[in-house]
Every structure is written in C-alpha cells, then in structure tokens.
Amino acid sequence: MSEFDIALSIALGIGLAAATGFRVFVPMLVVSAASYAGYLPLGDNFAWLATPAATIMLAIAAVVEVLAYYIPGVDNLLDTLATPAAFVAGTIVSAAVLTDLPPMLKWTTAVIAGGGIAGATQGVTALLRAKSTLFTGGIGNAGIATAELGSSLLMSILALAAPFIALLLVVAFFWLAIRLVRKLGKRAPAETPPPSTT
Q1: Nearest to 123 by CA among 13, 28, 20
Q2: Is 138 left (phi over 0), alpha (psi -120 to 50) or beta?
Q3: Residue 185: is its pLDDT beyond 80?
Q4: pTM
Q5: What is the number of other CB atoms lying within 10 angstroms of the CB of residue 77?
Q6: Cα–Cα–Cα angle for 110, 8, 173, nearest 5°?
Q7: The most confident of 68-77, 160-169, 171-180, by mean pLDDT
Q8: In the structure, what pLDDT confidence band is assigned to residue 195 with cuts at 50, 70 and 90?
Q9: If we measure between CA atoms, which residue out of 133, 30, 24, 19 comes closest to residue 82?
Q10: Fewer Cβ atoms within 10 A, N terminus or C terminus of the chain?
C-alpha cells in the first residue's frame, strides 16, 4: 500500500468519523450501503457492515435518531448519550475503512483520530444545542437538528467521493467551532448581571 493510499484511507476515516459526530447512525448507514453495493472495500473484520441485515438495521436506527432530534427535550437528552456513542461509531467507521494497515497502527489511528474527532464534533454540536435551548427556549433546536443531518449526509458522501476535501472541511469546521466557542465564552460573563450592592 502506497503512502498516498494510506493518506487517502486516513482522510476517508476522519471524514466519516466527523460525520458520526453530527449523527451516529447516518454515516454508518452510508458506509453499509456503499460497501454492500461494492463501492467501498472494508476490512475483513467489518464484513458484517456490508450485509443486507446491517443496512436495514442501520436504516431503521438512522430514521429513529433523526426524528428523535426534532422532539423538544429528547434532543438534549440524546446529546448526553450521543457523545460516547459517537466516539464508538467514529472508531468503528474509521477502523472499517483503514484496510491494509498493521493492526496497531490501524486501531491507534481509529481510536485517536476517528473516535476523538467524532467525540469532539458531537461535543461542539451539543454545546450549540444547549445554547440554542437557553436563548430560544428550544425553538431554534429544529434548525440545528436539520443542519446536523445535512452536515452528516454531506460529510459522509463527500468522504467517499473526495476524502481530502472532506478532511479540509473537518479542519474548517473545527476552526469555526473554536472561534464560536471562544465568542460564546467571552459573551457569557458579560451577560451576567452585576451583583447587588444593597
């Protein structure tokens, strides 16, 4: 396997992992459908993802997950469960597409890059939803849910079609997220009312 192929598979894994940070099951469904159709080769230990049963189960899970994020209150509850789930899903999809790598390198990359990026992405979206709930009473959460679904689909498909472009989008997302978190962090103390002197 050439260095370019290794870099390509790592970029693919990172793109898919970032997508699981937006929605856990949507990228796994895309991977399952693409591998079942013969478009995406998977590692031997992940052949189960390419089965019709896995595709059907992931499709059901994806639909339930997508719809649940439109239910007020449930969306915030799901965020507490989705962070560890995103880490696991990010690790799985990364490891599945990192074929022909030595096991130690494969799993180290999958856990650190895949799981880490998925968990960080989910953490950022959970923070945005919490702020939206606070400032809009949950009214703005449907817009965030729609944006997350679109981002998950776009990132999943782009990772398959153009992994390096997907990787650039991941970098851009985190750059914007860091700026947003810093802005929210600076604004929060300013909005705190001064202590009463009486």
Answers
A1: 20
A2: left
A3: no
A4: 0.85
A5: 11
A6: 70
A7: 160-169
A8: low
A9: 24
A10: C
Chain position carrying tokens 């799985």: 92
Name the residue type at position 180: L
Tokens of 144: 């965030």
* Phi-psi region at 37: left, alpha or beta (left = phi > 0; alpha = psi -120 to 50): alpha
- CA-CA distances (angstroms) from residue 51 to 35, 48, 58, 189? 9, 6, 11, 52
Q: How does DSSP assign the chain, residue by residue?
A: --HHHHHHHHHHHHHHHHHHHH-SHHHHHHHHHHHHTTSS---GGGGGGGSHHHHHHHHHHHHHHHHHTTSTTHHHHHHHHHHHHHHHHHHHHHHHH-TTS-HHHHHHHIIIIIIHHHHHHHHHHHHHHHHHHHHHTTTTHHHHHHHHHHHHHHHHHHHHH-HHHHHHHHHHHHHHHHHHHHHHHHHHHHHSPPPP--
Query: Computed from CA positions of residues 184, 91, 162, 23, in that sequence, does the dihedral angle turn out positive or negative?
Result: negative
Identity of the amino acid at 124: V
Q: Is the distance from CB of 22 to CB of 83 less than 8 angstroms?
A: no
Residue reference for tokens 């890059």? 113
